[in-house]
Amino acid sequence: MHNLLLSASVFAIVATSTALPALSQTPPATEPAPQPTDQPTAPTQAPSETPATGSPSLERSPAAMPAGEETAEAATGQQTDQGNRAPRPQPEIGADWPFWGGDAQATRYSPLDQITRDNVDQLERAFIYRTGDMPTGSAEGKYAAETTPLKIGDQLVMCSAKNILIAIDAATGEENWRYDPQVSNDAIPYSASCRGVSAYTAPGLPDDAQCKTRVIEGTLDARLIAVDLRTGQPCADFGENGQVDLWQNIGEKVPGWYAVTAPPAIVRGVVVTGAQVKDGQAEDAPSGVIRGFDAVTGAFLWAWDLGRPGEHGQPPEGETYTRGTPNMWTTATADEKLGLVYLPMGNSSVDYYGSNRSELENQWATGLVALNALTGEPVWDFQTVYNDVWDYDLGSQATLLDFPTGEGETTPAILLPSKQGDIYILDRATGEPLTPVGEIETPQDPSVEPDYISDVQPTSEWHTLRKDELVEKDMWGFTPIDQLWCRIQFRRAGYQGFYTPPTADQRWIQYPGYNGGSDWGSVAVDTDRNIIVANYNDVPNYNRLIPREEADEMGLRPINEQPQGGEAGENADVGGAEGAGDPQAGAPYAIDVNAGWRNDVTGVPCTRPPYGGIRAIDLNTGETLWDTPIGTARRNGPFGIPSMLPFKIGTPNNGGSVVTAGGLIFIAAATDNLFRAIDIETGETVWQDVLPAGGQANPISYEVDGQQYVLIAATGHHFMETPIGDYIIAYRLPE
Amino acid sequence: MANHRADTLRLRGSDHLRGGGWWIFAIILAIVLSLFGLALFVGGVWLIFLGGSWYYALAGAGLLMTAWLLITSPGDALPVYGLVWMATVIWAFWEVGTDWWAQVPRLVAPTVVLVLILPTAIALGSRSKR
């Protein structure tokens, strides 16, 4: 009966202050006050830079230029730096949707109010645009575009699943231009995703200059690409013909191991990007290094390689950035005023085994890290898991807000959702929590590495989306027989509640699973009504560590040891779940994840619905205003047969929401392919439309000629098992 | 389908054929129920040994008994299964209340079985009384 042990009474709540061991290593960066001469700027670093080993088109990088040219570059570089490094006013949200997260604060809150609960039922499709980017060949079963466009001026700009940059007319959907960087299928890591692009207007360039405003994306094959917003032509001044190769200093180039899927953050003219390092391959994996590049020249400015504290240049010749370190695959948040960039860090490359990790990896993994965006020096860190062996990467973009701290006072704050469902609010200058953070004692045994598992873990005492621990009666199925089978599995598995340690001799239940809580869709914050809108998953994973010998017999091999274009035996992850047979080379165990804990025969989940919900939270108090399942059963059923049932069941969901001043939440995300409007006051769905493919993307709202539009990409998601499409669909009221 | 066929046969007014149709149906039903019952009983005993719910073993035993009675004494199959079904409903509401999605695996299949047993047992039961 040990599964019932961890009742709330067992949780020892420790004082808030002890929960923050990693805080404030360096003084608060209220005044980063960058001096260009102090910075390791690209030109002075350039001589040590080794040419890219990769793509032929990038061989002649600026670094490889002759000395004479380099000096000239240095001079102009310095000049541009001085022009760009001061904080600048950021584009406003309203008619435009200028940032991936809506506004510079990433609130996903649009001040538009033309569409309201009273007229939303009249919404009609304004246009459907099709990107034309659909999977072919080996990309089949790997598409999850997760597209969210920007809207700037009269254009929408976006990237497709395989990084084709596209601009269309925001009112008609007519294509203005496209630029195809020709990403090959073998560059697809787990999914072909390009969540978005970033735009930057260079203050130092004349208004009519090429790339005055440029669109910047990171690609699956690890390039930064900059094109002119007006024409789509590559920016001649950026890197080598509009490209910077991110494979530089990463090591052996293995396509698909190191890929960018999120839009970069741009702070004071510095483009900051991490990359997705494909999970669970090997301890000797590409580095999780975060790098800053000049937004105008593409020149390398700094690196934050957590394995080399204090060093921000490129590694010495013949070396690489520290291998296997925690990476940031999701979207960072730029803080133009403080000159910081907030990085939601993931875990080390091998997620489910930690004893071989360095102390530095343990220190920085699965935390929100504030970096000085001008130097790459960490300013503060807030860790959400100690010694993470559950793949609880921080997936959500953090949101900047002014948090009410009583008597009309507010503090510049940052809101951080986690996959465990905890919502933290931190002082963004110092990282100090503004809401109570507690510590719970967590189960220790059995574990394959008892010395590594932390005795305690932090939790938010202000708000969590996490539900009660599982009990046997939560097991589900379609008949008593499959339900019984799940109950037997529940009793046989190791489960001691939240943070049950991984085991090899038996399955263990991880709840919540790695899909969240909150994932990359992030939360929306209505800053007028002071309401946080959070959609979330509520699904366990059913896992087992696989001893190395058994993994070898299964043919599990890391990506760099697989035959070119081949896959790792029958456990290859084409269309499969992340972690469903990941080799974790270097560790004594591979990992097998049954994501969502599905019955192996029927495919029906072993736990009862709902599997996902959406919740409104009072920003002033942290209290739940309403909470309701999201997603109907229409597309779900046993053996993959759609039940056609129109009832709300609460499906897994992936993708976020947009909240409008009209009092509506627009969200798709669920696996029922419905795009819906929810009344923010009541949680009631007041309008919905059937999408032609899965809506696993963040919607946006914008205005053209006085008309409000709402837009969603119906591009589908292989892991969420929704139909793949290439549709960009805009809605508006009849004229 | 079986009901439809039975109605057609009844129109012909042949008692013998009507009973034969129900007998074939009863045998098929009894085989299916005994398979389900066996799975529930064996799995349910395993679950008891794992420290879990006793419901499945008991329900499995009830289904096995119902299947046996359908062949040997059809008139008694209905009251016995009726008890199993009522106990199932009480247990289901005790476990999860009005969480209707959680009731799907608990109530749907047992109620379908009730719907199948009801006319079979009545038809065969009344025939055997004559």
TrEMBL record, chain B:
Q: Keyword annotations for this protein?
A: Membrane, Transmembrane, Transmembrane helix
Q: Which residues cross the membrane?
A: 21-48, 54-71, 78-94, 106-125
The organism's place on the tree of life at top rank? Bacteria
Q: What is this protein called?
A: Glucose dehydrogenase
